[in-house]
Amino acid sequence: MDEKEKGKKRKPVKLAISGKGGVGKTTLAAILAYLLAKDGFRVTAIDCDSSINLPSALGINEDITPLSSLRHIIEERVKLPFGAFRYNPKVDDIFEKYSAVNNAGVRVVVLGTIEKGGEGCFCPENAFLRAVLRHAIFSDDVLILDMEAGIEHLGRGTAKGVDLLIAVVEPGMRSVETLGRIEKLSRDIEIERIAVVVNKYIECDTARKIVKRVSESYDVLGVIPYDRCFVEADMVNIPPYEVCDLKPFKKIKERLFDICTP
Ligand SMILES: Nc1ncnc2c1ncn2[C@@H]1O[C@H](COP(=O)(O)OP(=O)(O)OP(=O)(O)O)[C@@H](O)[C@H]1O
Ligand SMILES: [Mg+2]
């Protein structure tokens, strides 16, 4: 069975990718989005990070309007008279209008800055972004959320329906220590499963021990070696999947379906 045929038989996965700054979340999000689109899935990748860089990792250099900046539309669709809000505003036309599609067919959406006015703040922007995410979670597309800290400020249960939270770690103690925090985040936004990808791996005794320790507590989806190719691709603004070795990512992609299939 070729890859496209296999894709047709599989349920589109919904993924959130988290981890400490600079560990490789955007690189992983972009490459998985690319590979899954190649498999024949319709893929939507959402940049939930306030420093927007997922579009360029996917070869899109035009500006994409961040959804949080659509003040006029948010006012019109979310606000009701006397300070009340609509909890389920219309958002089904939003992705089409405020996104870009790359040459592999991946649709890229930028969420923009999320108001952090307290846990689950129900300001109009958050109600709108929440509705947008729910819409993406219930669509037939593969969904990939590239998250910085998280989307916990959109309120509990926003990501309910996301199959898996992938925590990206480097084989260093500072990065591994963030795993507890990521686990809490996954509970806050009600993502039930969490798995780990080790990135920038350099073969040595200590790194081996760290991976072993992590794999005692977490499902390790894969280990990606440190490779200068990623840094060089980033320097010249070429999507990493055009020039770097994708073998470890292909294995990770296959494991995703094992884990996400109930
Ligand atoms: N396996 C790897 N080997 C070497 N360099 C890598 C690897 N993976 C990613 N990088 C490089 O590390 C840098 C950070 O990667 P990336 O932007 O994907 O991380 P991030 O977690 O999204 O960062 P941020 O927290 O700033 O959003 C980039 O220059 C990228 O090319
Ligand atoms: Mg990033």
Give the structure's gist in a few sentences.
With 262 residues, the chain is of the alpha/beta class. 40% of the residues lie in helices and 17% in strands.
Give an account of the 3D structure:
The chain is α/β, with parallel strands linked by helices. The chain has one domain: P-loop containing nucleotide triphosphate hydrolases (Rossmann fold, 3-Layer(aba) Sandwich). It is 40% helix and 17% strand. It has 12 helices and 8 strands. It has helices at 3-9, 25-38, 54-57, 71-78, 94-97, 124-137, 173-176, 178-188, 205-217, 228-235, 240-243, 247-260; strands spanning 14-19, 43-47, 100-101, 106-110, 142-146, 164-169, 194-201, 219-225. The chain has an 8-stranded mixed β-sheet with strand order 3-4-2-5-1-6-7-8, sandwiched between helices. Strand 3 and strand 4 (106-110) form a beta hairpin. Helix 4 packs across helix 6 (124-137). The longest helix has 14 residues, at 25-38. It is globular and about 65 Å long. The relative contact order is 0.18. The structure holds adenosine-5'-triphosphate (ATP) and magnesium ion (MG).
